[in-house]
Design brief:
Layout lengths: L1 E10 L2 E6 L11 H4 L6 E4 L4 E5 L2 E5 L4 E7 L1 H16 L9 E6 L6 H12 L3 E6 L14 H14 L5 E5 L6 H11 L4 E3 L3 H9 L4 E2 L11 H9 L10 H9 L2 H11 L1
Parallel strand pairs: 7-8, 7-10, 8-9, 10-11
Antiparallel strand pairs: 1-2, 1-6, 3-4, 4-5, 5-6
Helix pairs in contact: 4-8, 5-6
Length: 263
């Protein structure tokens, strides 16, 4: 049997495995944290992690080198693929039951709240991603990232929902990079959305997508709420009580009207 050395590489699209090819970027592994992902661990140090997989002895180094012993090339490639998934993936079970919900939340409304409650009926935790994080104080995005975050936090506290995490993501001109940037920020195993573009982005990187119910989209939408504010029509019954109070406290109605006169 021969010995084969596999090298993890990194390029703009992520990580890959090759047989002794020139690496496209450096990769550093935390062997201490990595050791928890293996069942049969024989030796662990800051220099090398030694384990077994499918009858082969494996040595893993901080720079991403993996040396496999007692295998032929075909077996080595199969084992290296499994190692790749273990090393670059999420610890087993950590992402299970955690769902992602993406929105701009301009503003956060009762449709969002209904969707979150529905998602939590089948998942233990929800990750709420605030999209277009760089936008604020424009006609279509009148509220800043921090203001949107406060709306969500106040609404979920009002509803006694605690099993959530909030993160933010900026826009990219690349579908896969946008979805990948969210995947890098949080661990989740399913995405809920009614937006076809969002669905396409996550399917491109291999994450399952489900559709939640669409709750009276003609009423519960940020566009409709902003329109009602501009036309001086009733809008407060479309958002949680805490959101209505918050928007009034920051003079959000006046801001929306002023922004639409300026642009």
């Amino acid at each position: 049997m021969k010995e084969f050395e596999f090298k993890f590489q990194r390029d703009s699209d992520g990580y890959d495995i090759g047989l002794e090819v020139k690496p496209k970027g450096e990769m550093r592994l935390d062997l201490e944290k990595l050791s928890d992902r293996f069942d049969r661990l024989h030796l662990k140090s800051s220099v090398v992690l030694v384990t077994e997989m499918d009858g082969a002895r494996v040595s893993i180094y901080p720079d991403g080198r993996i040396i496999l012993f007692d295998v032929d090339e075909e077996e080595g490639r199969e084992i290296a693929s499994k190692l790749f998934e273990i090393i670059t993936g999420t610890p087993k079970g950590e992402e299970e039951g955690r769902a992602l919900f993406v929105g701009r939340f301009q503003p956060f409304h009762l449709g969002h709240m209904k969707a979150i409650k529905e998602i939590l009926e089948g998942n233990r935790e929800i990750v709420i991603a605030i999209g277009s994080a760089q936008e604020g104080r424009t006609p279509e995005n009148p509220f800043t990232l921090e203001e949107r975050k406060q709306m969500i936090e106040k609404s979920l506290k009002e509803a006694n929902i605690k099993n959530y995490k909030i993160l933010s993501v900026k826009d990219f001109n690349n579908d896969e990079k946008w979805a990948g940037s969210i995947r890098d920020l949080a661990k989740f195993n399913v995405v809920y959305t009614m937006n076809l573009w969002t669905e396409r982005c996550f399917e491109k990187i291999g994450i399952p997508v489900k559709r939640h119910r669409l709750y009276e989209n003609d009423r519960y939408s940020g566009t409709e709420i902003r329109k009602r504010i501009l036309e001086d029509k009733e809008w407060r019954n479309l958002v949680p009580v805490s959101v209505a109070k918050f928007i009034r406290s920051i003079k959000g109605e006046e801001r929306i009207r002023n922004l639409n006169r300026l642009f």
